[in-house]
Amino acid sequence: MIKRFVIAILILAVIFGGIFGYKAYKGYEMGQMMRMMKYPPASVSAAVAKIGNWRNYIHTIGNVTAVNSVNVTTQVAGQVKGIYFNSGEFVKKNRVLVKLDDSLQLAQLKQYKSQLIINKFNYLQYKKAYLKNAVSKASYIQMLSTLKQNEALIRQTEVVIKDMTVKAPFSGIVGIRNSSSVNLGQYIQPGTNIIPLYSINPIYIDFTMPQNDLHSLKINQKVKVELDSYHKVFIGRIKTISIDVNTVSRNITVRVIINNGDMILRPGMFVTGRVLLPVIHNVVTVPATAVTYNPYGDFVYIVVKKNGQYIANTDYVTVGPQRSDTVVITKGLKAGETVVTAGQVKLRNGAPVIIENGIENNGKAVVAKKIIKNNKAEVSKNKGMVNSK
Questions:
Q1: Considering the domain 71-198, what is its CATH architecture?
Q2: Using CA atoms, how far apart are residues 287 and 291, in angstroms rounded to an integer?
Q3: Can the peptide bond before residue 287 be classed as cis, meaning omega within 30 degrees of 0?
Q4: If you average pLDDT over residues 227-256, what whole number do you get?
Q5: Of the candidates 232, 166, 374, 331, the residue with the CA atom closest to the CA atom of residue 177
Q6: Whole-number Å distance between alpha carbons of 259 and 269
Q7: Between the ranges 38-42, 94-98, 366-370, where is the mean pLDDT highest?
Q8: Across residues 38-53, what is the average pLDDT?
C-alpha cells in the first residue's frame, strides 16, 4: 500500500508540475513579448514656449461714484411758478431749474427803495444840522441807523428774490423729478428736494483693495475698468489713495478718475478693475493647460524628435503668475521648446506622441498632417500594434 501511495503522489507531482511549468513558461513568454512591444503613439496638442514681456495686474472690484452729486433744494418758501428742466437731461452750471413766485418780494423791494429816497434826504439834512450843532449827536446817529436799516432791508429782499430762482450749482445730469413734491402751483418749504443732480464726466470709481497691495499702488497709475453690461473697457488713473485702513477688513479705498464722455458709467454701477503693474521683460510663457500640477512638483511634457519620431519627456518647472489661459514659467523651461497642451493624461516619460495641431517652431509652421503621416509610418513597422488614432 505504501508503494502504491508513493507512486500516486509521484504521478500527481509530475502532472501538476507540468501544468505549473507550462503556466510559468507562458507567463515568461508573455512578459518578454510585452517588453519587446512598443506602445502606440498618443495623440496630443502642442504649443511652443514663447519669450516676451509680461504685465502683472491686481484684480479688484468697485462702485461708480459721481464727482459731484446733490439734491437741489430751495432756501426760501414759495409757490412754484415755473419748472425749466426735463428729467434725465444734461444741464449747464447756473441754468434755471425752478422759479418761485416772487411778486410779493418785488413789491416789497420797490417799497424799500422808495423809503430809501426819503431816508437819504433826511440823513443829509441831519448831517448838515449836526455839523452846525443844530441837532444832537443822538438824533444824527438815529437817522444814520434808519438809513442803514433801510439799505439792509433792500439787500435782504434782493437775496430772497435771487434765491427764489433755483439754479444748477454745477453742470451735470438731472435725475427724475418727484412729481409728488414739486409741481406747478405747489407751495414748497425751505429744504424741499427738487431734483437730484450728478456730475459724471469725468467720473470716479472707488475700489476696495487689501492693505498688502498698498506698496504696489501710486498716484496716476493706470487702471483698466470693465463694465460687463456693455462689454466695454475704460482706461483710468488713480487719483487718490485713502490715508486710513479699515480696522475690520484691513482694506484701503483707491479712487480712480475716468473720462465718461459717452455717459455710459452711472453712479452706483458695479465694475471690475485691473490695476496695471510694471512690465516684466523676457519671461517664458506657455498655455496654462500645458502645466500638470502635482504635490511633488509641477511639470510639463516637452516634445522632442528622436529617430524620426516625437517623444514626450517630463520636465519639472517652477510656475509664476497666471493670466487667463497663459502662465509664466520662471524655471525649468526654455523659450522655443515645444510642450504638450492637451492629452497629458495618456502620457508617461519617454512616450511617443502624434501632434494633431499645427505649431510654430523657430518661425516656421509645422504642418500637423505631415507630422501625423510620419508617425503613422513608424507605427506601421511594429506588427500587432494598433494606431491609437
A1: Beta Barrel (2.40)
A2: 8
A3: no
A4: 92
A5: 166
A6: 15
A7: 94-98
A8: 85
Cα separation, 127 vs 134, whole angstroms? 10
Return the C-alpha cell found at 107: 413789491
C-alpha distance across the termini of the chain, in Å: 67
Taking the C-alpha atoms of residue 319 and residue 129, their distance in angstroms, rounded to an integer, is 100
Asked whether 189 and 73 are in contact (CB, 8 A), the reply is no
The pLDDT-based confidence of 32 (bands split at 50, 70, 90) is low
Looking at per-residue pLDDT, the higher value among 236 and 372 belongs to: 236
What does the block give as the cell for 241? 489713495
Q: What are the residues whose beta carbons fall under 8 Å from the beta carbon of 151, sequence distance 6 or more?
A: 116
Is residue 68 within 8 Å of 198, Cβ to Cβ? Answer: yes
Pairing of β 351-355 and β 42-48: parallel
**Can you give the residue ranges of every domain in the chain?**
39-52+282-380, 57-67+200-280, 71-198
Residue tagged 518578454 (cell numbers): 32
Give the Cα separation of 109 and 152 in Å (integer).
Answer: 11
Is the confidence at residue 371, as pLDDT, over 70?
no
Average pLDDT on 255-282 reads: 91
Nearest to 58 by CA among 284, 241, 244: 241
CATH 2.40.30.170 assigned to domain 57-67+200-280? The reply is yes
pLDDT at residue 389, rounded to an integer: 34
State the Cα–Cα distance between residues 114 and 120, nearest whole angstrom.
10
Least confident range of 98-102, 133-137, 357-361 = 357-361
Strand 222-227 versus strand 232-241 pairing type: antiparallel
**Cell digits of residue 193:** 428736494
* Residue at grid coordinates 499702488: 217
Give the alpha-carbon dihedral of 378, 380, 386, 389, to 10 degrees.
60
Angstrom CA distances, 141 to 116, 119, 124, stand at 16, 13, 12
Fold entry, domain 39-52+282-380: 2.40.420
- Whether 63 contacts 270, CB under 8 Å: yes
Distance CA 210, CA 188 (A): 47
At 22 the three-state DSSP class reads helix
